[in-house]
Amino acid sequence: MGEAQALVAAFAERLERRDWPGLAELLDPDVVYEIPQTRERIRGRERYVTFNARYPGDWHVEPRVVLGDDHDGCLLFRWTLDGESSLAVAFFEIAAGRITKVTDFWPEPYEPPPGREHLVERW
Amino acid sequence: MGEAQALVAAFAERLERRDWPGLAELLDPDVVYEIPQTRERIRGRERYVTFNARYPGDWHVEPRVVLGDDHDGCLLFRWTLDGESSLAVAFFEIAAGRITKVTDFWPEPYEPPPGREHLVERW
């Protein structure tokens, strides 16, 4: 298990517990948070912890897959917000034992394109 | 580096090369492919290779992050289709040296919710 895997597991656990000082300990002071889908970026540990602490609603993070080597980590998690749940993904970069970058993906449902029905089943 | 990491790297490389026999070698005969966003599922190596081989357009897979342990792997990649590109993510399960499950996520752009502009910059 790489160092990033342990950091990602701790990140998810402290986020779920709303342990904001504990979460901050895992983050580099200059951590960068990005959501490529909205092209949003947050710079710095203080703002990023505030963003999480003030995120509205009754939300929960349930890890499904946690992976990492010495530089990169990833988290597949079930995200539940006010009783509705979906799968989401985060990637992490680490350096000197702290998280330096978090990249979040929030995949939304969509209708499949036509032409592959003969290969596919729906659930 | 876990076994899954090597399998995921080979998967991406053979997909990009359209090496369909080589791709099939990496897959369990009963491999399951799922897209949670569309609730689509493809069962079996033959159908899944056909799905990839017939995927329309000029598409390219450029790995950004490849991670894996002895059971799970993940791939963050730049997906380019007919000149338009975005980031996408796949998770993998492996057993006995072959890929038994592939789960794809295709995150689409969306507008951010209001209320966090004071913490965020856009790009």
Task: Describe the model.
With about 120 residues, chain A is of the alpha+beta class. The first copy, chain A, is about 25% helix and about 45% strand. Chain A has three helices and seven strands; from the N terminus they run H-H-E-E-H-E-E-E-E-E. Chain A has a six-stranded mixed β-sheet. In chain A, a hairpin with a 4-residue loop joins strand 1 and strand 2. The mean pLDDT of chain A is about 95. At the A-B interface, strand 2, helix 3, strand 3, strand 4 and strand 5 of A face strand 2, helix 3, strand 3, strand 4 and strand 5 of B.
Fill in the keyword field for this structure.
homodimer; 123 residues; alpha+beta; six-stranded mixed β-sheet; 3 helices; 7 strands
Uncertain spans of chain A: none
Task: Tell me the radius of gyration of chain A.
Answer: 16 Å
Label the structural class of chain A: alpha+beta
Order of helices and strands of chain A: HHEEHEEEEE
How many helices of chain A does DSSP assign?
Answer: 3
Largest sheet report of chain A = 6 strands, mixed
Helix content of chain A: 10-25%
Strand content of chain A: 35-45%
The end-to-end distance of chain A, rounded to whole angstroms, is 34 Å
Shape type of chain A: globular
Mean pLDDT metric of chain A: 96
Major beta sheet, strand line-up of chain A: 2-1-6-5-4-3
Give the chain pair forming the largest contact, with residue counts.
A-B, 43 and 43 residues
Oligomer: homodimer
Number of strands of chain A: 7
